[in-house]
Amino acid sequence: MPGMADPRFERAVIALCVHDENGAIGIGIGHKRAGIGFRGLLKQLDIDPGEAPDGAVHHGGPVEPGRGFVLHSTDWGGQDTLHVTSGSEPLFAMTGTIDVLRAIAEGRGPAKWIVALGYAGWGEHQLDEEMTRHGWFAAAGRERILFDTPTDERWGESFKAEGIDPRLLTSETGVA
Question: Which segments of the protein form a coiled coil according to its record (predicted)?
Answer without folding.
Answer: none
